[in-house]
Design a protein that fits this description.
- It is a single chain.
- 44% of the residues lie in helices and 14% in strands.
- With 280 residues, it is α/β, with parallel strands linked by helices.
- It has one domain (19-279).
- The chain has a six-stranded mixed β-sheet.
- Helix 2 packs across helix 4, helix 3 runs parallel beside helix 8 and helix 8 (235-255) packs antiparallel against helix 9.
- The longest helix is centred in the C-terminal third of the chain and has 21 residues, at 235-255.
- It is elongated.
- It starts with 18 loop residues before the first helix and ends with a helix.
Length: 280
């Protein structure tokens, strides 16, 4: 009788450019610190004392699964939204900006409590280079009245464009730039050849562990399928859902009598559209 030989399957490759991966890494203290070191180095914001508030909070869009990745808050009630965006489209960019506007807009519904809300910040990890974008690896956006140089300091957005770090010369870059280059890897071997840093190697081992977990693989594959399904939605339907959400927010903000120009800046609606809401 021949002896049975069992061949162990190789672990699935788990990409760092994944909503599911990002959320799992944020749940573990050591892997969360690994991500936080990137944010500290590139943006100057330390999220060590921030706690997860609401994972994948719905934006109010009628189209399902249009949600943000993680939302964090600290003892000072500051809000930070962290997004992982794997592909580019104008609709996707509008989506995560809308999350920021919605969170910031909700602060205006709290009356005097609004004073206690110091910042609403969005940090986007973008695995793409948008058409005609500048050479910067990280782009900071401020909001306000540009014509009169008025800056609304309580709403900010930072975008890290990951592909800008993929082709850097390894011996000339610091450890965080090298860490960001791992997001573009297509295999564990490629990752291991790119770094000797102990913390980076721990992340690779954690990805290998996740690649052997059926429960994680199910969620990981579900994310891939959902993204493919979302690509089949007609842009008209998506735009309609976004527009309805913006109008709803603008109505609530008008109840508190904020500046119409500010509502326009936050929601992207025209002054005429906002004035029409006053007539309803």
């Amino acid at each position: 009788m021949k002896e049975l030989i069992y061949i162990k399957n190789e672990p699935r490759f788990i990409s760092l450019v994944s909503d599911t991966t990002f959320k799992y890494l944020w749940k573990n203290e050591r892997t969360r610190n690994w991500l936080n070191e990137i944010i500290i180095d590139k943006i100057g914001i330390d999220l060590s004392n921030f706690e997860l508030v609401n994972n994948e909070s719905n934006t109010g869009s009628k189209i399902k699964d249009q949600r943000n990745d993680i939302t964090l808050s600290d003892m000072n009630n500051e809000i930070v939204i962290v997004e992982m965006n794997s592909t580019y489209s104008e609709g996707e960019e509008r989506k995560y900006r809308y999350y920021l506007y919605r969170r910031a807009g909700n602060n205006y519904l709290k009356g005097k409590e609004y004073i206690d809300r110091k910042h609403t910040i969005l940090i986007a990890f973008n695995n793409y280079i948008r058409p005609n974008m500048p050479d910067e690896k990280i782009i900071y956006s401020w909001f306000g009245d540009h014509e009169h140089n008025i800056n609304y300091k309580d709403i900010e957005m930072y975008e890290i464009f990951l592909p800008k770090f993929y082709n850097l010369c390894y011996h000339k870059i610091n450890k965080i730039d090298k860490r960001l280059s791992l997001f573009g890897a297509k295999s564990y071997d490629e990752m291991k050849k790119s770094t000797t840093n102990t913390d980076d190697l721990y992340i690779i081992e954690e990805l290998i562990r996740l690649g052997n977990m059926d429960e994680f693989i199910d969620e990981y594959d579900h994310e891939i399928v959902q993204k493919k399904l979302m690509n089949t939605y007609k842009i008209e339907g998506f735009e309609e859902g976004i527009k309805e959400g913006k109008l709803e927010i603008a109505k609530k903000m008008l109840d508190k009598n904020p500046d119409i120009n500010f509502i326009s800046e936050c929601t992207g609606l025209s002054i005429e559209e906002i004035n029409n809401l006053n007539k309803e």
